[in-house]
C-alpha cells in the first residue's frame, strides 16, 4: 500500500487534504506531530521514506523540502507556487490538455495549480488552443475568493479579533501592483503571449470563488458568437467528471461564490449577449477543493494509479 506523507499537514491546505484522505483504505497517510513538524531532520526522514509526498508549505519551505529528498523513487505533489512553471515539473491539471493526465501519471514532480489559475486557465486554454482567442489578445480577469485562500494568516486576519491585523472588511481588492503570484502560470499554461490584467478580490466568507474573463466578441477574429465559445468549452471538457460546463441556455440572475464549497468540482459558464457582442466567461469553484486540496488528491490518485475520483466528486 502506498505511503503518503503530508508535509505542512497542520496548515489550511494540509488539513483539507488530510480530511479528504481520512477515510481512505487504499493508502497510508503519514504526518509529523506538533513537536516534529518543523524539524528538518524529522521531515527529511519522512520525505525520503514515503512513496509520495504532498507539500502544503510556503514556497521557500516547499523548495527546501524538495532539496531534502534524496530517494529517487519518491514522488511529489507540490501545492505551493514554487514549481508551477519550473522545468522538470508537470502542471497538475489533468483536464487541461489532451495527454496531460498521462504526463501526471508518469511524472515524479507534479505542481498543483493555484486556485485563481485553475479558474483562469480552464476558461482560456481551450479557446486559445482552438484558435478562437488569438495568443496575443489582451485578456483580463477578475474575481472574488473566500479568505481561506490566503492561508492561516489571512484566516486569522478575518476571524481572530485579537490578531494584530484583524479586519472587519467585507470585501476588498488586492494585487494592486499587478504582480499577483499566479500570473506566471496563468500566462504559461494558457499559451497567451501577454500577461493578463488580473483584478482579484477577497471577501468575508471562508471558502469558494468566482472568476470572470470578460471578452468583447466583436474584437475576436471572425466575430464568434457566445454559442461558439460555449461549444469549444463544452467539447474540451465533455468527458471530465470534475469539470462541468453549464448549458448555453442557462437563465440565472446571478451566481453564488460559495455554491460549490466542499466539492472538488469546477463549473464553467458562458453568459453572452450577441447583440452587444460581449461575453462573460465565469468559473465557479471551491478554492480549497478543485483550487487546492481536491486537485492535490486527484493528482495523487492519478500518480499512484488509483481511480482518479476516489474521495472526490
Ligand atoms: N489556501 C489556499 O486556498 C491555497 C493554498 N495553496 C498553497 O499551499 C501552500 C500552503 O498554503 P496554506 O495551507 O494556505 O498555508 P498555511 O499558512 O495555512 O499552512 C502552511 C503550513 O506550513 C507550515 N510550515 C511553514 N514553514 C514550514 C517549514 N519550514 N517546515 C514545515 N512546516 C512549515 C506552517 O506552520 P505554521 O503555521 O506553524 O508556520 C503551516 O502549518 C502554500 O504554498 C499556498 O500557496 C495552494 C492553493 C490554494
Ligand atoms: C484570497 C487569497 O489571498 N488567495 C491567494 C491565492 C490562493 C492560492 O491559490 O494560492 P497558492 O498560490 O498559494 O496556491 C492569493 O491571491 O494570493
Highlighted features:
binds NADPH dihydro-nicotinamide-adenine-dinucleotide phosphate; arginine biosynthesis; N-acetyl-gamma-glutamyl-phosphate reductase; globular; Rossmann fold; six-stranded parallel beta sheet; seven-stranded mixed beta sheet; NAD(P)-bd_dom_sf; amino-acid biosynthesis; alpha/beta; 30% helix; Dihydrodipicolinate Reductase, domain 2; binds N-acetyl-L-glutamyl 5-phosphate; 313 residues; AGPR
How would you describe this protein?
This protein has helices at 12-21, 40-49, 59-68, 100-106, 115-129, 151-159, 183-188, 226-236, 289-303; strands at 2-7, 27-30, 52-55, 75-78, 90-91, 109-111, 140-146, 171-173, 197-203, 209-216, 243-245, 266-273, 278-285. With 313 residues, the protein is an alpha/beta fold. It folds into two domains: 2-113 and 292-303, NAD(P)-binding Rossmann-like Domain (Rossmann fold, 3-Layer(aba) Sandwich), CATH 3.40.50; 115-287, Dihydrodipicolinate Reductase, domain 2 (2-Layer Sandwich), CATH 3.30.360. The protein binds NADPH dihydro-nicotinamide-adenine-dinucleotide phosphate and N-acetyl-L-glutamyl 5-phosphate (X2W). Residues 81, 114-116, 145, 149-150, 154, 181-182, 200, 202, 291 line the site of N-acetyl-L-glutamyl 5-phosphate (X2W). NADPH dihydro-nicotinamide-adenine-dinucleotide phosphate (NDP) binds next to helix 1, helix 3, helix 6 and helix 9.
